[in-house]
Protein 1
Amino acid sequence: MAAVFAPERILTQIDYVRITRLLNAERAAGSADALDELLALSELVASPAVRPDVVTMYSQVVVSDEASSTRRMICLCYPADADPPAGFISVLAPMGTALLGLRIGDVARWTGPGGESHAVRIVEMLFQPEASGDYTS
């Protein structure tokens, strides 16, 4: 299971620090590889400077499946808050890693546990903490 990175990624400095701490705790489980790579390749920006169309932690977005055109709401969260049936996707999940740092219009791609390819287009930003002045969530 791996995320496929193509578009440029933008992360807030606070998301970077928190995710790095999370990864340090997860390394023994082997679930950190794709996210480690994303962190190494991303552009870091201060929270007040992040564009309002960038998927940051706790952003709520509408995505459209590239194969079926099915739309669903996703909230990118930390593992403790994950509830996939309700749309709360952990940043450690392949889909979560694939969404982090992308913008509206970008396509997130990842490989599922059975080797199947997945792709969703980010079509709408419903909420981004930084855009509402929350620089600490």
Note: DSSP finds three helices and eight strands in the chain.
Protein 2
Amino acid sequence: MTEVQHVTEVAKGISDYGMMAVSAAFFLLLSAAMMIALFKWFKSMINRLLEQQECLNQLLDTVQDNVSLQRNLMERLQPETLLRIRNLTGFAFDLSIEQVCRLIKRVRIENHIADREATVNKIRKSLQVIHDDRKSRFDPFIYHGKPLSEYCNENWVEDVVSVVESEIYNEDGENNARAYTNVKLAYDNIKTDFYQRLNS
């Protein structure tokens, strides 16, 4: 009986170990297959990333070429843009010269200029209206990302007020030619300041 029992135990042991060996082999094969599949998946992802990187590099090169072309165009157009701005603003400032000369004549005729303070206040208000009108006409035009009106200076009004006041209360009396010359000189200074603001 012991022999039969020994044989049965050996058969059972072989049977058990054989099943374990088969299971272990199966799991080893499954693990190897999963590792191979994962490695292939990682390899395909890396290849796709490399292809996308090549595409992105080509796109970056194209964008850099476009930026350099745009920079060249901007450099070529900047002097022309500045020339257009100078022409446009030159007409606006020339119109302001005429408006101020008419204002001087009108104040001499219509106002009681003996009241100097009231006269100067009226002049200041009129010149502020002219200045604000000119600024509003500059608003639609852009230079360096800002409307042209931002390059205007509020102190210009006071500069012109002093010129107009000195013309109205000049001891030598009325002289339209002198008034025009002085107003034009004031607006030439304003133009110079405006162009310096554009270039700074």
Note: The CA atoms of residues 192 and 198 lie 10 Å apart.
Protein 3
Amino acid sequence: MVLKLEECVEGEVSDKELKKVIADFLEMGHVENIFEMFKQDTRYYDWVGELLDDERFNVRLGISVLFEELKVHCRDDINLAVPSLCEAFEKSQPHVRGEVISVLGIIGNPDAILCVKKGLDDDSPQVQEVARDVLEELL
């Protein structure tokens, strides 16, 4: 059953509320709904870094699954997430930085690769390892 986001949110909502709804849908595994939202409105790409900073693992996993799908169907649009992701890399905890690098690896454009390379010098050995693995796959 595909839930429609419009059925869950009535009237006008703030960006903060919408981000929470997106994260909740990702946690429930409703990636297809969020995929449709990203196809219809590219402003959501600006929120990806913030969404990855969610404490719920399933939300972060959902972002990765979402970007695998977006890479197939919206290849040009996924580049719009790179600034948000690079900003999140600079401001986040190590587990989030690792997730950021993984999503940047899915995107794989030159700007994303530049940000992934920053992970090689990260304070966290785990982030360094993720960056090495991603670069090994990309290069």
Note: The chain has one domain: 13-138.
